[in-house]
């Protein structure tokens, strides 16, 4: 086993504070080969699929990766950003904007920090971004999995990957992880501001549907807090809005496989609403901070179509927080609260030098006293 320094490391560099934002990930392009690489990494994660490896891997490589990539590529192509200055996967475009804005907001607050973005699956990888930060002598690192509600399938997987990437590092940075912010007041305020803006512009719907990403039901039974945190987020948003409980619907989307997942399922819920006479709904996805395939294609396309086909008259999609000012302010506050005691790096370094000098002075004084 070799424990090496990062490629560009030099002794004498000033220590730095780093903030690493980690999103789920995205394929490099909307093509079947790119999707095959992406899905192979994503669906090989034992945090995501808990089926025993000997059973699951033959299914994954023998069936799924031969069938699903082409279908997924067509879906990604339908939401890929090709026009204007912002090009590529919406998830990556908005995530990069969030990282850039966060860096600026921290700077305005007097915090000199390296801010970087990595993808748990796909590029830029967690390992490559971590190496880049270590080359800049980041010795205090805050890792922010970009999931408001904690789940072992998402947040814990990021923690796994960061630790794996640092396994061979000789000079380990001090690490902190943000576990969740599902009930953070500023995050709730950002969601409420988004809903209010939409209502002012588009009118008030009969029902507000909050669709969260689904996970298998067994994760809840085994102790995963995700389900509870989703419902708490929904309750806090409704309370802050003053929204009646009978007009709020919580549901879960993005099922995969035949196992039972968290219910009620979003698509079935919207179809039932339409069939029961609800004509106008607004749908938001609070578990996602950036618009992506699951929000733009699944919700704003597939679920919209099913709702209207079942008799609904109007389907409004409320975009994710993306690069909105209230959300970046909230993210900045979350980051700063977890960096307490780290200061801006320079002040802390000066304090460390002062403390070391004082310790040496006291030590020398004690030696002199004992000699006397």
From TrEMBL:
PANTHER family: FERROCHELATASE, FERROCHELATASE, MITOCHONDRIAL. Its EC number is 4.98.1.1. This is Ferrochelatase. The lineage of its organism: Bacteria, Pseudomonadati, Pseudomonadota, Betaproteobacteria, Burkholderiales. Fe(2+) binds at residues 213, 294. It is found in: Cytoplasm. Catalyzes the ferrous insertion into protoporphyrin IX. Keywords: Cytoplasm, Heme biosynthesis, Iron, Lyase, Metal-binding, Porphyrin biosynthesis. Its main location: cytoplasm. InterPro entries: Ferrochelatase (IPR001015), Ferrochelatase_AS (IPR019772), Ferrochelatase_C (IPR033644), Ferrochelatase_N (IPR033659). Pfam families: Ferrochelatase. SUPFAM superfamilies: Chelatase. It catalyses: Fe-coproporphyrin III + 2 H(+) = coproporphyrin III + Fe(2+); heme b + 2 H(+) = protoporphyrin IX + Fe(2+). Belongs to the ferrochelatase family. Pathway: Porphyrin-containing compound metabolism; protoheme biosynthesis; protoheme from protoporphyrin-IX: step 1/1. NCBIfam families: hemH. It comes from the Bacteria.
């Amino acid at each position: 086993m070799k424990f090496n320094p990062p490629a560009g490391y030099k002794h004498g560099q000033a220590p730095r504070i780093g903030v690493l934002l980690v999103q789920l990930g995205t394929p490099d392009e909307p093509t079947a080969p790119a999707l095959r690489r992406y899905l192979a990494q994503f669906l090989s994660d034992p945090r995501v699929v808990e089926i025993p490896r000997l059973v699951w891997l033959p299914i994954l490589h023998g069936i799924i990766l031969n069938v699903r990539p082409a279908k997924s590529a067509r879906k990604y192509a339908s939401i890929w950003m090709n026009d204007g200055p912002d090009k590529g996967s919406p998830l990556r475009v908005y995530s990069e904007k969030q990282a850039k804005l966060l860096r600026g907001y921290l700077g305005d607050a007097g915090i000199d920090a390296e801010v970087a973005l990595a993808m748990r699956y796909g590029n830029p990888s967690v390992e490559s971004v971590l190496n880049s930060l270590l080359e800049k002598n980041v010795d205090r690192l805050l890792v922010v999995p970009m999931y408001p509600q904690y789940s072992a399938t998402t947040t814990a997987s990021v923690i796994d990957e960061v630790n794996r990437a640092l396994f061979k590092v000789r000079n380990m940075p001090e690490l902190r992880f943000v576990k969740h912010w599902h009930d953070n007041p500023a995050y709730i305020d950002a969601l409420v501001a988004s809903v209010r803006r939409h209502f002012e512009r588009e009118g008030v719907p009969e029902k507000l549907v909050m669709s969260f990403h689904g996970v298998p039901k067994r994760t809840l039974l085994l102790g995963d807090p995700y389900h509870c945190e989703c419902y708490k987020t929904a309750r806090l948003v409704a309370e802050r809005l003053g929204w009646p409980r009978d007009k709020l619907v919580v549901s879960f989307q993005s099922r995969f496989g035949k196992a039972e997942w968290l219910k009620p399922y979003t698509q079935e819920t919207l179809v039932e609403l339409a069939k029961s006479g609800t004509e106008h709904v607004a749908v938001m996805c609070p578990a996602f901070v950036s618009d992506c395939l699951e929000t733009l294609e699944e919700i704003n396309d597939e679920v919209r179509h099913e709702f209207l086909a079942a008799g609904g008259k109007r389907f409004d999609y409320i975009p994710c927080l993306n690069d909105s000012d209230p959300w970046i302010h909230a993210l900045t506050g979350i980051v700063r609260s977890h960096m307490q005691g780290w200061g801006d790096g320079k002040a802390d370094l000066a304090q460390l030098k002062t403390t070391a000098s004082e310790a040496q002075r006291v030590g020398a004084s004690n030696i002199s006293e004992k000699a006397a």
